[in-house]
Give the backbone structure.
Amino acid sequence: MIYAIFVLKVILLILLTDFVTGFVHFWIDQYGREDMPLVGKSVISLNINHHKNPMDMTRRSYWSLTWSSWVLGFVILLLWFLAFGKLDWEIIFLVAYGAQGNIIHKWAHRPKSQNGKIITWLQNWKIIPNKQQHRHHHNSPFDTYFCVQTVFLNPILEKIRFWNGLVWVLTKLGFPPAAGSEVRGIH
Ligand SMILES: [Zn+2]
Ligand SMILES: [Zn+2]
């Protein structure tokens, strides 16, 4: 029973991580601008470049793809520790797994020959996104399928029009997205 609860907890944490990293991806794609301080040149422009040249990331190293996720992760861990005075394994799992987002994303762009048996198996069994599923995100104006760590959330979020609804609410509150403007390379 305890074992079953632990497995269920890990599955829920994986889905939660997929949602959290999907949300960060949504913010970068829809609201990020290259002239923003700190993140503009280092994070936003790299992401915009990914939409223009999707295969570029397949040639980049582990650290060049994950450093910004690790930095954000350590900020989350620090805030968690300051708030609760301890670091639970669940938050460490979320940060460590979340930091691999761009690596799983990279696998979705690489050919099968480079991915090897285990990654291809996970993609074939539709546990992590493969090329066909991730393709939905690469349709201009890049406004859906932001979750790149599993295949489970994207169809549900799309069905309930979650991201469109979020943009609608934020626009009503005075925060229209930058997407569709020149910073996306879309005219
Ligand atoms: Zn994107
Ligand atoms: Zn991609």
